Request: fold
Amino acid sequence: MTASCARRCIVPPSLLYRLARSADEAVRDAALDALVLDARFRLARAECAVTLRRQPAPVTFGRAGGQPQRTIYDQQGSESQTPGVVVRAEGQAPSQDEAANQAYDGLGATYGFYWTVFERDSIDAAGMPLLGLVHYGRRYPNAFWDGAGHMFFGDGDGQILTQTTAGIDVIGHELTHGVTQYEANLTYSGQSGALNESVSDVFGIQVKQYLLGQDVHRSDWLIGADIVGPALRPALRSMKHPGTANAYDDQPADMDNYVPGGDVHTNSGIPNRAFYVVASTLGGYAWDAAGPIWYAALADPQLHPNATFRDFARITLRQAQQTYGAGSDQAHAVQQGWEAVKVSL
Amino acid sequence: MRVDVTRRGGVAGVALHATLDTAELTGTDAPRVEAALRDLPWGRPVPVSIGPDRFRYEMVTAEGDHERRVVLSESEIPDALQPLLTLLADLGQIRPASAE
Reply:
């Protein structure tokens, strides 16, 4: 804690009000600054006290964090949800199976991103082992997180999707569904469902950008570009230009084109683009400020499972204001992001 | 027996649709698929959520003037219906995620 913070924190508001009426301009400005900060802290405390609803995390012992616990299983074309044959466990040398190695590396890259940027120890923030099940089903054109500690990877049908282990952003996307499950647990339908999808794209693309060292201007902001088959090339979704990723992309880019009753993968284009605008307005790397603001919003106790876009937008703005200041570039960028997609704050 | 099958969901976020006829199935598949279709829980409420990026299958069939509909999660699909899903994969047309 700095000396200046210590002074601010122990001065009661009544004294600050008196100082704010001081004839001395320097004293007055300092007191007003302190009152603004003080009010922000009191508001945050009051909101947390009223709305804190999540269970406290269990105390875990003997785990420092920072090291994933990965196991990759070969499902050998089966659709059994029980893990199959172990092909690579944590710390073992690469296997002969390229898909297994890609899954191992992708789980590791996602773990590393969440740990390095947010100090989050795996999906549950308590060191959950990451289990990857490759070669699930026959020509299965999908990859998913099952909500119970397993990520399943299909080999793809060759038309819609190819080998799904090749998509680092898709691995980040699926594991983020797990993170969301342990945080806001956004209901998977309507606007909250589209937010759930969008949050997975937001952190999925950051996992890819982080691995490749891409700043916001070098990234293509495309989701699934490494796993699309010929029918959906060049990508599944575009966070920069929703609705343009492939011939069947029906994502709207703003609320004027919101699809009532639409699929969660359709309306997620709106918050996706808001994040892109915030990150590209700020420049640098997406995880410098935009990512942490979105992460703080996802973990905010006020974000309810049935949140609307507007609910989420307001929480991102409050998080930006609390962390960086009400008049900060970050707060302005968040406002610009939601204005661009016509979500009123 | 004709049935409209639409697969929705999945990380790709597109739908896959086909109008299929069990007569297109070979050998013993047709009667097994028809029996499995008859046993589906037609008309039950649509599941609200079946988990992120999981597939769900919407099936519609006509019986006289009466249209019957059911939505199943992929984990609810009986093994006997697999030949029908293989046919969907081979003949299905891709549609936007939110297409009717």
